[in-house]
Amino acid sequence: MRVTLYLRCRGISSTQVELVSTGLETDHRGILVFTMPEGDPETEKAGTTDLTAFNPEGRIPILLLPDGRKMTQSGPIVDYIEDSLPSGTGRAMLPKDPWLRAETRRLMWIVAADTQPYQNIPFIIQAMGEWGMVKADPTQHPLRLHFIRREFGAMENIMKICAGRFAVGNDITMADCFLVPQIRNALLAGIDISAEFPIMSRVWQKLITVPEVQSVLEAAGGIVQPFAFDAEKFEVYAKTSTLESD
Ligand SMILES: N[C@@H](CCC(=O)N[C@@H](CS)C(=O)NCC(=O)O)C(=O)O
């Protein structure tokens, strides 16, 4: 979603960067596993739907270039696209001022490196099933709530200084593209961002009026992340799992 928001807000057309949805399966734990879509020409070329043929980490997003090169990680992907575009065209997604560019990237890194990995639901499911972590609804697990609140608190303090109508200043930036999915994820966890993080909440209220953001959110199932895991499989896995892991 970070990359999709960037593409849409930057005004990049589907002839420049085509978005391809992954296939989806659940594993024995009930965790979603992304695969390359059946029937896609790139899947056919690779001869497998296994995502690790495209990204050794087995994660999305993946940027595939016409010459076959593949880039992963949302930050490097948006940086690469941004650096490849003729400058001065379309909506700028990074401030001109070097300090504010650093502020933008600071927020992006806090989301991508310090928030998302620690509140990741597949990780929480595995930790409950295999490593004896306290059991709770994975979407509202205390570990998840702790790390979202810790990092949102930090971003709130940073945004006291750098936010305007958007996360950094008065124009939408890449930082907003990273914040939107993380806020939606916090809403799934039941966190009341208007009560706890008023500046972030003000920026969020503005973001959801931006037509490009609205259409990405609509296509992704709404303002609150509709996370799905296979609860039945998870129950069985959590009861019977041993220390064996994959
Ligand atoms: N740091 C990576 C995170 C990528 C990531 O965790 N993607 C999730 C989907 S939003 C994924 O592919 N999860 C599958 C898995 O963990 O196996 C980035 O910013 O691109």
3D structure, described in words:
The chain is mostly helical and 246 residues long. The protein folds into two domains: 83 residues, Glutaredoxin; 143 residues, Up-down Bundle (Glutathione S-transferase Yfyf (Class Pi), Chain A, domain 2). Helices cover 50% and strands 6% of the residues. The protein contains eleven helices and four strands. Strands 1-2 form a two-stranded antiparallel sheet. It has a two-stranded antiparallel ribbon with strand order 3-4. Helix 5 runs parallel beside helix 11. The longest helix is centred in the middle third of the chain and has 21 residues. The radius of gyration is 19 Å and the shape is globular. The model has no long low-confidence stretch (mean pLDDT 93).
- Average pLDDT over all residues: 93
- Helices, by number, come to 11
CATH architecture of the largest domain: Up-down Bundle
Helix % is 40-55%
How many domains? The number is 2
N-to-C terminal Cα separation, in Å?
27 Å
Shape: globular
At the first level of CATH, the class of the largest domain is Mainly Alpha
Which class do the helix and strand fractions yield?
mainly alpha
Which cofactor or ligand species appear? glutathione
Order of helices and strands: HEEHEEHHHHHHHHH
Radius of gyration over all CA atoms, rounded: 19 Å
Q: What are the segments in which pLDDT stays under 50 over at least 5 consecutive residues? A: none
Instruction: Report the β-strand fraction as a percent range.
Output: 5-15%
Biggest sheet strand line-up = 1-2
Q: Please give the largest β-sheet.
A: 2 strands, antiparallel
User: How many β strands by DSSP?
Assistant: 4
CATH topology of the largest domain: Glutathione S-transferase Yfyf (Class Pi), Chain A, domain 2
